[in-house]
Amino acid sequence: MKNQLEQAQKLHDLHRSGNPLVLINAWDAGSAQIIQGAGGQVIATGSWSVAAAHGYEDGEKLPFDLVLSNLQRISNSVDLPITIDIEGGYGSSPEMIKNNVLKIIGCGAVGVNLEDQKIHEPGLYAIDEQALRIAAVREAAEHTSIPLFINARTDVFLETPTDEHDEAHLDAVLQRVHAYTEAGAHGIFVPGLCNERLIEKLCQQSSIPVNVMISSDSPPLQKLALLGVARISYGPHPYLILMDALKQAAVRALALQEL
User: Fold this and answer.
1) Among candidates 58, 21, 37, 20, which has minimal Cα distance to 239?
2) How many other β-carbons are positioned within 10 Å of the β-carbon of residue 70?
3) I need a surface site. Which of 17, 37, 62, 228 has the fewest CB within 10 A?
């Protein structure tokens, strides 16, 4: 318990505006060990990669028992703090989410991502509804006395093409930041946001650390740091890069059979 407490505090401390925590997202124990060996400070899973590695699609298609067993294997194989992407919490009610998060903490995690995108239908949860879901995560953490880092993901920017992002989208995110912070969130995750001006404004106006995800349109890491970002995630990209390399190696090797 003491070690998990220390890891949770370390995860909180690593979120520093201007000196961001960089997360090369893992999907299993093996990838987590590689990231630890390369000098990673934290192990973060990505739901898309974890699901794909197990042969499932994203969107809570991966059975929750496999989410837990995969997390336990990662926890048993590394010494770093672990934060896990639990998508929408695998629950239709705050009480279900609370029970699931208790299991997540029991498997060694000290951080979670919880998104406001509805899993089985289009659109986002209403702000007050998502706030109740975040509060349920906070209650689970309080029950265990582990200061779980709650990274509240909002998909406001993902719902609109990048070239259409504007101040109205930023205002919508800031409304959620305020409500999610009140509910117990410690960070705000805004995948899809690539516009430098909007990133800087969000970092200036958010009361909690800002997490962005790398994409082909993202500013470079050094620029994101200057804009005030506190956490940078690579999402599914490490898995996709590795699978593409595997495919190319297999194609080259199997082509030799035809010679």
Assistant:
1) 58
2) 22
3) 37
Distance CA 192, CA 187 (A): 16
Residue 2 has a pLDDT of 55
CA atoms of 57 and 51, how far apart (whole Å): 6
Average pLDDT over residues 191-215: 97
The model's pLDDT over 75-88, given as tens digits with 9 standing for 90+, comes to 999 999 999 999 99
- Assign 29 to helix, strand or coil: helix
User: Percent of the chain, pLDDT > 70?
Assistant: 99
Residues 6+ apart with CB under 8 A from 166: 198
Q: Could you tell me if 168 and 133 are in contact, meaning their C-beta atoms sit under 8 angstroms apart?
A: no
Q: Over the stretch 175-192, which tens digit does the pLDDT of each residue have?
A: 999 999 999 999 999 999
Taking each helix axis from N to C end, the angle separating 64-77 and 29-37, rounded to the nearest 10 degrees, works out to 30
Query: Could you give phi then psi for residue 212, rounded to 5 degrees?
Result: -115, 165
Tokens of residue 64, six digits: 């929750």
Q: Which residues contact 223 (CB under 8 A, 6 or more apart)?
A: 196
Alpha carbon distance 153, 233 (integer Å): 12
Q: Please answer whether residues 26 and 74 qualify as being in contact, where contact means their C-beta atoms are separated by less than 8 angstroms.
A: yes
**What CA–CA distances, in Å, run from 92 to 50, 111, 129?**
21, 21, 11
Contact 110, 150 (CB under 8 A): no
Q: Is residue 46 a contact partner of residue 85, using CB atoms and an 8 Å limit?
A: yes
